[in-house]
Amino acid sequence: MQVFRGFSDPDGQPCVLTIGNFDGLHLGHQALLGLLANEAGEQGLPASVLTFEPHPREYFAPGDAPARLTSLREKLPLLAGRRVDRVHVQRFDARFAHLDATEFIDAVLLRGLKVRHLLVGDDFRFGDGRAGDFALLQAAGRQHGFSVEAMPTLAVSGERASSSAVRRALDEGDLVHAARLLGRPYGVVGRVAHGDRLGRQIGFPTLNLPFRCRRPALSGVFAVTVEGLETARLPGVANVGWRPTAGGAPCPRLEVHLLDWRGDGYGQRVQVNFFHKLRDERRFPSLDALKAQIACDTAAARNWFLQHPDALLG
Fold first, then answer.
1. 224, 273 in Cβ contact below 8 A?
2. Residues 241-256: pLDDT tens digits?
3. Pairwise CA distance, residues 124 & 134, whole Å
4. Domains in the chain, start-ordered, CATH in brackets?
5. How far apart are CA 62 and CA 74, in angstroms?
6. In what helix (H) or strand (E) does residue 40 lie, and over which residues does it extend?
7. pLDDT of residue 166
8. 220 pLDDT more than 60
9. CB of 24 within 8 A of CB of 9?
10. What is the 3-state secondary structure (H, E, C) of 99-133?
11. Using an 8 Å Cβ cutoff, are 154 and 34 in contact?
């Protein structure tokens, strides 16, 4: 898969295109990308995705933007696994945000990406003030010779598959429903960094993955698996939060205590998959009280994996 900055196509080849943030790459996104790849194959053109960085809502309302389900670095391998040939990452800035709908069609779809077929979700809006809609795209397609298709909503267990629905499930601690919407367990990818070694001092060494002040989509204590350290998934117990008992942290942190592994993993890039919420994060009156609770959490996680051995497969 090729990745480009912006919407200029370096070789001038027409494409079959879809546009969106694709945060989380849930089942609705996957269905859309399946249609994209099939259409691109029939036309003998590259299956292309135009996505944005930062998320438009982070640009318009940075203090009120939703939690990211996937960073760009996490999103790209997921797109590659869906038969996408090209990803165009457009910086969402003031200049781009203020393109009106007609300018968007002319600059992005026609001159930039030379679209032959455009596939969008049924709620797709574009251009300054979100003034552009599907009817405008159809009219432009008739005028300029490209076809436009809208994919209907995909429902999962009676609920529309959407990034918002996944965020809601994670916020409520319903990891089973989140996995149902995603088609896989929710996971976070990061590089293991050095911490303050507090976990090691109290007998529960951890892998530390900083969020770099990105707001996590979930918080609390969880039964998790870790991929990237061994050929098999490793079971563990994870805390996502601000470490209130240890004086707090300036940015949220993901800390994982592995149940049956004693390396340190420093510098390794790992994926942490979340399966079951054990409890909310809370402040304890002392480190001894925290240590006792971690022992309980570890036992609870171990018991959960004994009851759900399939979580370690894959």
1. yes
2. 876 666 556 678 899 9
3. 7
4. 2-155 (3.40.50.620), 185-312 (2.40.30.30)
5. 21
6. helix 27-43
7. 97
8. yes
9. no
10. CCHHHHHHHHHHHHCCEEEEEEECCCCECHHHCEC
11. no
